[in-house]
Amino acid sequence: MTIIANPGKITANMKIHLPNSAFIGNIDPFLKNIDFSDNQKLEITANQNWIAVHPVVLSMVAALGFPVKPKNIICKTLTAKSAHYLQRMGLFKFLGTESGINVEEHEPAGRFIPLTQIKNSEELSYFIKEIIPLLHLQPFQVDPIRYVVSELVRNVIEHAASQTGAIVSAQYYKKSNRIAIGIVDTGLGIKKTINQSYVANTHLEAIRLALIPGITGTTKREGGTEYNAGAGLFFIKTIAKVNHDFFMIYSGNALYKLLKTGSSKLHADPFDDNHSKSDSLPLWNGTVVGVDISLSETKEFSELLDLIRDVYSKTIKERRKARYKKPKFI
Amino acid sequence: MKIINIFRRVGSFAENKDIARDIRIKEIMPAIESGKNVILDFSNIDAATQSFMHALISDLIRKYGNEILDQINFKSCNENVQKIIMIVTDYMQEGI
């Protein structure tokens, strides 16, 4: 916690530090060090030599800073040579602050989607139709990306009750030929949403339930409501899983992270997949989702749908069977 | 016979659930209730999300039972769209 001297007043700031590296695989220390003390003020610091972060990190900073008045955002002068990346992704424009960065040379156009706020269905449709094509990818590569963005952002619009909507950003990495996507909100969070229909005593249990196909906070009924099936997050986890990509959800004090290693076998229960988890992180009011999609290894979407169909049906059958009443033999 | 062109409503990527729900409530259900068969025409649709398809057809199966699938035809679906439809019709019938 940082204490800022202010005549006649002492204030504790919300504080976020951008390390030299924070991608899904090594994001845990970054999350542990976020300080949410006072959401009226935000202090942003960064590694002095190098900043390389996943778009989900930028989406988090933007979501945290968005409701804060620009005069209450303190951004330490960024000296890292790579700091211009934050400017290119639109972070300072988003926060309404000055970066203090002198961009010495014009950056070549990159394949990235700068920080974008999406608040409703129309903005989402526009984003999918007009913004995603800016990544200049092949149609077969675009399918999983627009699928992921659509399902995740619709979750935010429908369930999160986030005043700032969803904050989205994405980056294509040429060397590894993958796209990294971050979608963040500061709404109800998964536990409150799931608890409308299911009992989840912890944030981690709520995340687990949210990832199981057919479980939605809107109803306990099998098959969901006429509008929600409870399958969106399962589909997205599956896209990452079968392609051996990272996927993370952080909500409340809990983080679930699908790891890249492990078998491709699809499981309904996310805890059966190779993963890491934590339930002692600083409390994020809302939901943070980060996903990587390897474009060179992208499994045919149709194959993936076959796998989903099998597991989904099996899961519902098992769930129905678990509810069967047993005959009493006396 | 009622023919509903999905592309005209949503473009090539069918993901807008609000429109899916509108199509179901304002076009499919009135046609079904007046005894007509329905053709959902997916010509020019490249891809669809499970959420879109759920909002379009799940409540039909819940309300009218799986016999409703005898009254609806899915036209010109590519392989992926067919698979999304099958996922939704499967889990809705499993859950009946």
Description of the molecule:
The complex is a heterodimer of chains A (330) and B (96). Chain A has helices spanning 28-32, 55-65, 84-88, 91-95, 121-131, 139-160, 190-194, 203-211, 232-242, 301-322; strands at residues 3-6, 9-12, 14-18, 21-22, 42-46, 52-53, 73-75, 112-118, 166-173, 178-185, 247-252, 254-258, 275-278, 284-294. Chain A is of the alpha+beta class and 330 residues long. Chain A has a domain at 111-322: Heat Shock Protein 90 (2-Layer Sandwich). In chain A, a hairpin with a 4-residue loop joins β9 (166-173) and β10. Chain A contains ten helices and 14 strands. Chain B is α/β, with parallel strands linked by helices and 96 residues long.
Brief overview:
Chain B: Pfam families: DUF4325. The complex is a heterodimer of chains A (330) and B (96). Chain A is an alpha+beta fold.
Q: How does the overall form of chain B come out from the CA principal axes? A: globular
Annotation, overall tally of beta strands of chain B: 5
Portion in helices of chain B: 55-70%
- Name the chain pair whose interface involves the most residues: A-B, 36 and 31 residues
CATH topology name of the domain at 111-322 in chain A, in short, is: Heat Shock Protein 90
Descriptive labels:
heterodimer; A: 330 residues; alpha+beta; seven-stranded antiparallel beta sheet; 32% helix; 22% strand; globular; disordered N terminus; B: 96 residues; alpha/beta; three-stranded parallel beta sheet
SSE layout and pairing:
The complex is a heterodimer of chains A (330) and B (96).
Chain A lengths: L2 E4 L2 E4 L1 E5 L2 E2 L5 H5 L9 E5 L5 E2 L1 H11 L7 E3 L8 H5 L2 H5 L16 E7 L2 H11 L7 H22 L5 E8 L4 E8 L4 H5 L8 H9 L20 H11 L4 E6 L1 E5 L16 E4 L5 E11 L6 H22 L8
Parallel strand pairs in A: 3-5, 4-6, 5-7
Antiparallel strand pairs in A: 1-2, 8-9, 9-10, 10-14, 11-12, 11-14, 12-13
Helix pairs in contact in A: 5-6, 6-9
Chain B lengths: L1 E4 H5 L2 E2 L2 H17 L4 E4 L5 E2 L1 H15 L7 E4 L3 H16 L2
Parallel strand pairs in B: 1-3, 2-4, 3-5
Helix pairs in contact in B: 2-3, 3-4
